Structures are given as C-alpha cells and as structure tokens.
Amino acid sequence: MPLVKNGQITADEFVAVADDAELPAEGAVLISATRFLADPDSLAARNSPLGVIWPNNRDVAELKPWLDRLALIALVFPTYKDGRAHSQARRLREIFGYRGELRATGQVLRDQFTFLVRNGFDAFDVKKEADAHAFGEATHRYTEFYQPTGDGHRSALQRRRQRHLTSAS
Description:
Pfam families: DUF934
Shape: globular
Number of domains: 1
Helix content: 25-40%
CATH architecture: Alpha-Beta Barrel
CATH superfamily: Aldolase class I
InterPro entries: UCP030820 (IPR008318)
Largest sheet: 8 strands, mixed
Strand order of the largest sheet: 2-1-8-7-6-5-4-3
CATH class: Alpha Beta
Radius of gyration: 18 Å
Strand content: 15-25%
Distance between the termini: 53 Å
Order of helices and strands: EEEEHHEEHEHEHH
Structural class: alpha/beta
C-alpha cells in the first residue's frame, strides 16, 4: 500500500513484524498493541525506531508512559463509518502531546483527508495509488478553517479576534 507522509508519497521505513516473529536486531519495526503491551519497557528501550498498531477500541491513555519512545502510532479505521481513531488522534496530539508520526490505517477515504490532517494525522496508509496522489495534493488545499483543533492552524474566529484586538490597540 502507498504511504503518504507530510503530503509526499514515500517509502515506509517501518517493517511490520507479526506477533510470533522474531524482531530484527535493528531497523524500524511496527508491532501490534498486543505484542507491545506484553513487554512495553524492553520494546521501548530498543535502539531502533518502534511503532505500534493501536486498535480503535483501546484507550490511547495506555500508551502515555511510552509516548516519548514511540516513533510511530498507527491508528486503525476498521471501516469508513467508524471514526473513533479521529478522537484517539486528537487525544494523542492535544492532551498527551505526542509528537511522533501518527498514521491512519485501514479504511482511509479521500473524503476524510482534511479531517484526518486537522485531527493530527501526518501519515496515511492508503489502498490505491490514485488515492495517494490525491492525499498528497490535498495537503495544502485549505488554508483557513472554522473549527479550532490542535494542528497549529488558527481558526477563522481566532484570526478575526486577533485582527480586532490589533486594530483596537
């Protein structure tokens, strides 16, 4: 599957490792939540980048002790109708301050791209090459938003208030 990261189609440096497979001595690996939670301290202490695939039915607060040592958290959209990973992403970014790669996996649709970015995702594991190109192009399509989020963009209301305060002084 193509990977779109920061608006660019890119090669995935992470290798998915099955629960029953041996971890390579070095290199970026992506493991399941089950495997990670079985021995999080020793896995997080690896000298290579570590990523975890986090299902949308688990609380992301469970990851809090290890967030500074996780290079990637892949949040799962099992169906396009199930948006719980949107909430997980916002909690990771806005409440827990996670700054590593936040990847959307599963049923990731073009129609949801702007919402995914606004909610903190910076990488997308997409099904089709055409979708990868569309995601890459859409990264810079919108510059003004009405709803505030923790993505660093000021909302239209925040900008208007700032202009008002500036002109009043």
